[in-house]
Design brief:
3 domains, globular, 6-stranded antiparallel β-sheet
């Protein structure tokens, strides 16, 4: 049977703020290597027997990020399914199973979150092989991570009867325990950390989902039946998917089925769920520190310090997380790292932009970043990739000046077409249709000065767009 990796890339990663934001969450960031976690997850599949290209399930607003990162590693997904809204893992996997149901209903799905670290890929491949044998016989398999410490941030799985070497019936699933209970679990030798990775046949998952959560099965089916194609993306029917209950695979199926199996996996795994877990997963110096970027440490111990845009100096402190970005700084005791999500929620409730975007905002054509802002003006740096162009658009409330720093630009301004090169500029009056295109072979760098009564990103009326965005 063919193995179909299903990569779930819809999370928001709020516990890794301020680096992870709603529009650039942790799975798209290079946290544990030079590549993003999504890219590492896909590259880790290389060498698996009879594996198809992955099915990537992600949020609609992340579609171009995911596609670009797959292109960077030379991977064309079997399908890229877009969720209009997050509904947890049970519905996400259901639509992937429905995607396979017409072509290969007995195909074996390998369900992987896009934001996990696995340091031992060869052992991981062996565990997948063991799991696939069980799944071929109709079992629903999860991976139990060998627990080396009493972690309270993970769920646990108790193993039952031995089915094959390293493979057990799943006796029960246990929610995140307190410290004393976690210690009992680890000392018993019968419990594993719950990895959140699964292997099962597409038809068997849909059968069990229909048995235990027919509402999720039906809503997912309606969303799949009302899907539409958008460039290379498969858009689920929005109304149906919004009406689906939000539920995890564990709650919806694995804790209820009598066919749950756990495969022991000693694979160097971490879910990188917080700054403290990223510190644990990194290689510290002799004082227990992990430093990334332009960092100076003096008398500092057992800390994670990361600088993204400027020098950070930490003196005489211990057990801290310090993360600096261009617009925010986080300082926390490592033991309180899980509370970062509460800060993100507070920023959201106050309608602050810092929970949503970085100063650098990625678009399918490149990116822009804010340089300065004041009353009725703002200044941006814009970088357009070779061969890419922005939408044909206009603004009701702002005018724009463009100054080319490097590269060659083709500018449509009303009825005119202009060619601009280094040190040349143009003015786009309020209400005039315009478009910017990089016709060179190198990135196009511009400075944009906006002026007007309202400078929000939602003041865009699009007439034509290569990426089919609305506005």
């Amino acid at each position: 049977m063919r193995l179909y990796p299903v990569v779930l890339s819809g999370g928001s990663g709020t516990r890794l703020w301020p680096l992870s934001r709603t529009l650039l969450p942790k799975q798209f960031l290079p946290l544990t290597s030079e590549r993003s976690m999504l890219q590492d997850t896909v590259l880790r599949l290389d060498g698996l027997d009879n594996a198809a290209p992955p099915i990537v399930v992600c949020a609609s607003e992340h579609r171009f990020l995911a596609a670009e990162q797959m292109s960077e590693i030379g991977m064309k997904p079997l399908s890229q399914i877009l969720e209009p809204v997050g509904r947890n893992t049970a519905p996400a996997v259901a639509v992937a199973a429905l995607a396979l149901s017409s072509s290969d209903p007995e195909g074996i799905m390998l369900v992987l979150p896009a934001d996990h670290l696995i340091r031992e890929p060869a052992r991981f491949h062996d565990a997948v092989g063991t799991a696939a044998l069980q799944a071929a016989g109709g079992k629903l398999v999860t991976f139990g991570i060998v627990a080396r410490s009493p972690e309270t941030g993970y769920g646990y799985i108790e193993r039952g009867a031995l089915l094959a070497p390293g493979c057990f019936a799943a006796a029960r699933f246990v929610e995140k325990p307190d410290a004393s209970r976690a210690r009992e679990f680890v000392d018993s030798g019968r419990f594993y950390w719950n990895s959140g990775m699964f292997v099962f046949r597409a038809d068997r998952y849909l059968e069990e989902l229909s048995r235990f959560r027919p509402d999720i099965r039906d809503a997912s089916a309606r969303a799949w039946d009302t899907r539409s194609q958008d460039l290379d993306f498969c858009r689920l029917g929005e109304q149906a998917f919004r009406g689906c209950a939000a539920e995890s695979i564990d709650y919806a199926v694995m804790e209820k089925t009598t066919d749950a199996v756990v495969v022991e996996a000693d694979i160097g795994w971490s879910d990188i769920g917080s700054w403290s877990s990223l510190w644990q997963a990194s290689a510290p110096d002799w004082q227990g520190n992990v430093a990334k970027g332009d960092v100076h440490l003096d008398g500092t111990q057992n800390s994670y310090v990361r600088a993204e845009s400027r020098l950070v100096a930490a003196i005489g402190v211990a057990d801290l997380v310090i993360v600096e970005t261009a617009d925010a700084v986080l300082v926390s005791k490592k033991e309180h790292a899980q509370r970062v999500k509460d800060t993100v929620e507070a920023l959201r409730s106050k309608q602050r932009d810092e929970y949503l975007v970085h100063k650098r905002v990625y678009r399918p054509w490149g990116y822009y970043e804010g340089l300065d802002r004041g009353e009725r003006f703002q200044v941006k740096r814009i970088v357009v990739k070779p061969g890419r162009k922005l939408s044909l658009q206009m603004h009701h409330h702002r005018a724009e000046h463009w100054i080319v720093v490097s590269g060659t630009a083709k500018v449509v301004r009303g009825e005119e077409t202009l060619m601009l090169s280094e040190n040349q500029s143009t003015y786009i009056p309020l209400g005039v249709k315009h478009r910017l295109e990089n016709i060179g072979k190198a990135p196009l760098h511009l400075i944009e000065v906006q002026s007007g009564s309202y400078l929000g990103e939602d003041d865009i009326v699009r007439f034509e767009d290569d990426y089919k965005r609305q506005g």
